[in-house]
Structures are given as C-alpha cells and as structure tokens.
C-alpha cells in the first residue's frame, strides 16, 4: 500500500522561494526578488498580529507577482495558474492550493481601477503587505524606478488635467511618475484591510505625503522661504 506522506512545510517554502527568485531575479519593473522578499516578511508579521495561517500567507506572498502582466509578452496574467501547477507538484492539499491560487488571482486583478478586496484573512495580509511596499521610502523609490524603466519623466508641470478630454486621455498623455502619487500611492492608506496594516500604513503614508509636498516645493523653489 502506498503510504501518504505530508510535505514538509519548510521544504515547500524553500523550494518555492528558490523558483520565484530564479524567475524574478532580473526584473526591472518593480517586481524584482527583493520586492517579494519584503512583502513576504511584512505579510508574515501581519499574519502573526492578525492570527492568520502563516504557511498560506508565506506561499501567497512568494507567488503573488510571478504572472504580473507587466512581465508578460502576451498580456495574460498566468500567476494563479502557474502557482497551482507548482503547488500541486509538492502534494499540498487541494484546499491549500486553491486558497493560495485564489489570493494570487485576487491580487493580480487590476482591471478598470477597481479595488479588489480579499475575502480571507490570509489574502488581506498579503495584499496589505503588497500595498505597504508601494508607499514609504521604498514605495517612492519603486515608483521612480518603474517610471525610469518606461522612459517617463519624473514630473511634467505643463500637463494639467483640465486641458484634456478625459482623465484617461490625461493619464495616457502625461505619464509622469509624480501623477502616480495622486492616482494611487496616496490613496492606498484608505484601502488597507487589516487593523495592523492600517497602523503600519499610517506612518508610511505620512512620509509619502511629505515627500510629495517637498518635491513640488523644491520644483517651484518654494522650499527656502
Ligand atoms: P504591485 O507590486 O503592488 O503589484 P504594480 O504592479 O501595480 O504593484 O506596480 C509595481 C510597482 O511599480 C509599484 O511600486 C507601483 O507603485 C509602481 N508603478 C506602477 N505603475 C506606475 C506608474 N504608472 N508610475 C509609477 N510607478 C508605477
Ligand atoms: Ni507585488
């Protein structure tokens, strides 16, 4: 009779981390390995504070960006699908595989500016951690690195929203990185889903806001009054 052996969680985590690192090592779109590593550690801290399942949280954090559309040539996000294939190979329970894949599917969905909220506590921890990495000193660094990788200017003072037909038109024509602050980064604090994530975001938000205001003050030489 074939004996059922449960996979060792630590072994699974190490193997998954190794595969993700190989895949994302050279990414310059803001999803490099160190983004994953930071999200992993913040998500685990949130999981501990919130009482979430640390194994599911760590797996989902490691896998959350493997299929990001910005890295794909065909525009399709295959993150959830790919995660399911990888995790099934380790013999994890179908429930665990499904839970992790659902989190990745939810995080990847970015259509029409709709903020997808996570149904499970584990998903909320991973999504909060991902959002926390988009604000604060690191988030600011990532935004300018992303803009640079697309050849975008930091700021374009001549582009005014009211001169364009629609907000979509404005976004398409300007594309300066500083716009990303008002479009997304400064709104993330309100979208945190766990109490500890909200507290954490508060400090990073304040720093981001201060940076934004100082950037514009220096741009207009208003900082040396
Ligand atoms: P996430 O890791 O949260 O899935 P995204 O895929 O939305 O993030 O973006 C990756 C990084 O690039 C984030 O730090 C994000 O703030 C930044 N970024 C995304 N779009 C823009 C943009 N239009 N301008 C500047 N930075 C951007
Ligand atoms: Ni991410």
TrEMBL record:
SUPFAM superfamilies: HD-domain/PDEase-like (SSF109604). SMART domains: HDc (SM00471). CDD domains: HDc. Residues 32-135 form the HD domain. It comes from the Bacteria. GO terms for molecular function: hydrolase activity. InterPro entries: HD/PDEase_dom, HD_domain. Keywords: Hydrolase. PANTHER family: HD_PDEASE DOMAIN-CONTAINING PROTEIN (PTHR33594:SF1), SUPERFAMILY HYDROLASE, PUTATIVE (AFU_ORTHOLOGUE AFUA_1G03035)-RELATED (PTHR33594). This is Metal-dependent phosphohydrolase HD sub domain protein. It comes from Planctopirus limnophila (strain ATCC 43296 / DSM 3776 / IFAM 1008 / Mu 290) (Planctomyces limnophilus).
